[in-house]
Amino acid sequence: MRRPMRPAAFLVFLGALLASQPAVAQTVQYVDNIGTCDGLTPCSSTIMDAVNAAASGDSIEVFPGVYHEAVVFEGKGNIVLRGHVEALRPVIAAPDGKDAVSILATPDVQVLNFVLVAPEGAGVMALAGASRNTVIHGNLVKALRGISLAVSVSCMVSNNTVLGGGIMLRGASGCLVDGNTVNDASIGLGEFLIAVRNNLIQRNVVRRGGISLGFTDYGGGANIVESNFVSGSSGNGLQINAVSTSGNIVQNNTSIENAGCDISDHEFRGGRNIWSSNRFGTKCGAATE
Amino acid sequence: MRRRVLRAVLFGFVGAVLWQQGAVAQTVHYVDNIRTCDGLTPCYSAIMDAVNAAASFDTIEVFPGVYHEAVVFSGKDHIALKAHDEALPPVIAAPPGGLDAVAITASPGIQVLRFVLEAPEAAGVALDGGGSSATVIQGNLVKALSGVTLGASVSCTARDNTVLGGGISLPSGNDCLIERNTLDSAGIVIGGSSSGVKRTVIQQNVVRGGGIGLSGKNVRDNTVGSNFVSASPGDGISVETVNGSTANVIQDNTSIENAACDINDSSSGGGNTWTNNRFGTKCGAATE
Prior knowledge:
Chain A is mainly beta. Chain A is 7% helix and 40% strand. In chain A, the strands form three sheets. Chain A has a twelve-stranded parallel sheet with strand order 2-1-3-6-9-12-15-18-21-24-27-30. Chain A has a ten-stranded parallel sheet with strand order 4-7-10-13-16-19-22-25-28-31, with no helix packed on it. Chain A has a ten-stranded parallel sheet with strand order 5-8-11-14-17-20-23-26-29-32. Chain A is elongated, with a radius of gyration of 19 Å. In chain A, 57% of the residues are buried. Helices cover 10% and strands 40% of the residues of chain B. Chain B has helices spanning 2-23, 47-53, and strands at 28-31, 43-44, 59-62, 66-67, 71-74, 79-83, 91-93, 102-105, 110-113, 116-119, 125-128, 136-138, 141-144, 148-150, 153-154, 157-159, 162-164, 168-170, 173-174, 177-179, 182-184, 188-191, 197-198, 201-203, 206-208, 212-216, 219-220, 223-225, 228-230, 237-241, 249-251, 254-256, 263-265, 273-275, 278-279, 282-284.
């Protein structure tokens, strides 16, 4: 029986991921559309100019300002995009119909400490193929589709505040969704023709939304949902709706005052999932304690 | 002989300190409306039951849950109200009828740490005038009509909150710190009451869809530094003070894409200092 990846393993993995990057960090590209980067160079006036100029291992530091552009990483890996001053998150305001940040077939991209606004798109969208080790951390996301990562391997979505749109991982494996606050939206693990397994969803606060695992078996299972707090969902609070998967663990969560069931398990043709030490009002299906 | 005297004095001093600390009540009260506080005691099902039972310097730790009540501190002092699990802020949802989620009246040393505060008809936190000092509002998500309202505050702190609508207001007070908050569709308002605001620091806040404004009488010696303001429907950072207001410092801020002026100083007395700000448009006496 394959055991789910434990938090300690995630931490070791993520530590290795983060530790490995400074070794190849090269140029810091600066972006400022109000001033001239306090004299720091190279200085671009748009984020995309900096992205185009960046090489693998570079960092891009963005000065406070409102950047009306769609930032696209395509085929350009190992780049960190961050606010120049951690406390003063710059705004990336996507043009109509666009995502604020798109990551296309690009590994090792980090997006740290931004306000991401996309009323018709996603705050961050990672599309299928070769995007791994993506890190989305410390952002305020106000977007129609929130944070949406497809076919992600070893991604990390942490400490974001997501207002609407939610966090959706489709076809994810080895990902960590940790410490996010989600308001008027949900967190979902779904399918994209790839195994959904070994993901850890922990310590998130979801208000007026739920957390759901929904997929059919492509070798999926062994995901952990633990120590989250879910309330006020218009549907179920914590739910598993899956086919032929098993071994998901749902433990130590609080789920209360949801319109549907606080905890719900409808696993078809699969093995048992493990529900333990959850705090809730109502339960449905095979969600047991 | 001298050594013995010194030792006696030292023991006496340590004993006095320990006795004083022991004399200060430091009970932790637990609140849980789903289960029974994991066996921890004393355990209550409502936050107000814990508040009523708490003595000075007690702590109230609240388990994850949705608490439909208006929490009122009146005539209490030095009580910390916090989430039992820092990562999982409980929800305090104010009942209908214009109630605040948390109201603080004549109560010094109250701390509200790590909650989701909802009050569609009133404030997430309302500090009413008189006798409340050293209030700390930190790490909360506030979704309320009036946001965080700090009335007549002395040495208050509002830090690391996310405020969705309503904003943060300090109509009167002194020596407060408003720091590292994120505001969406809301602003920070300083002044407005006749007694004014003095020696308050507003720094490192991100304000989106609102501005930072200092206005009214006796608003002086305040610092607005290193904030980022954008998309306000009015001015970005504005100072419109009158009688007795001077010597405010506005520095190192970024203010951009606001509907009116990015920086604006229309104070009647002048005497404010504007330096090293980043902006698009300026009005009045806002100079660099």
